[in-house]
Amino acid sequence: MITAVLDDLRAESAVLDDLVAPLDDWSTPTPAPGWTIAHQISHLRWTDRIAALAATDPAAFARELRTATPDLVDRGADEPVTLTEWRAGRLALEQALLAVPAGVKVPWFGPPMSPTSMATARLMETWAHGQDVADALGVAREPTARLKHVAHIAVRALGYAFLVNGLPVPQEPVRVELAGPSGELWTWGPEDAADRVTGPALDFCLLATQRRHRDDLAVDAVGEVAQQWLRIAQAFAGPPGPGREKGSADRGSADGRGRS
Questions:
Q1: CA–CA distance, 236 with 125 (Å, rounded to integer)
Q2: Do residue 9 and residue 128 come from a single domain?
Q3: Same domain assignment for residues 111 and 152
Q4: Compositionally biased, Basic and acidic residues: which spans (predicted)?
Q5: How much of the chain, in percent, has pLDDT values that exceed 70?
Q6: Which structural domain range is residue 206 located in?
Q7: How confident is the model at residue 249 (pLDDT cuts 50, 70, 90)?
Q8: How many domains are there within the chain?
Q9: Which of 118, 137, 156 is the last residue of a domain?
Q10: Residue finishing a domain among 109, 137, 165
């Protein structure tokens, strides 16, 4: 299974690579406040490196974890980065995850993950930061079936979203029904759950990665738990962020988080 996820991660990275490779200047501001395109790529390069470290040297990663601070998402963003370095880091991460022994979980800033889940998390973050870059360049990306990975990790992170916001983790199940880009239905949770989330997969992913305000999206919730979850949903590890302002997508820049 990890091979298929890594194939999709490679494809998602290639989409972003195609956006930035032709650019002579990476100083264009993105919707993340204070971050240029260079910051976005540098952050991805740093996170790929740390993920590879976690997979190959858990003790060294543990030392990194002990120094983690609330500004974790800013780590590495100010480091100079080249396209060649980012590409090399992506390959190193792929090789590191493939080498993890079966049954072994990779430590992380959130809960430990299987190599497949780590690859899914890297795909999610690559897609999210790719959205910031696409927004900065005025490019509308075509939604793909790879969104299912982003949605899956967001659904799996429901309890984590409550936890990092200092809220009790709900015991009630939530049914999630999302329309994929080709019209297929993606579902999670029991069919008879009282709490439900429905909408286009793209909109749900934009919400869960905090790239759009909920009011700008066609994601619906029924039930108190589902409603509260959509107010705090995050697919990424780390502290909660304020998200994006309403209407920020129309302005081309936002004052929200966008740095996860």
A1: 7
A2: yes
A3: no
A4: 243-260
A5: 90
A6: 147-251
A7: low
A8: 2
A9: 137
A10: 137
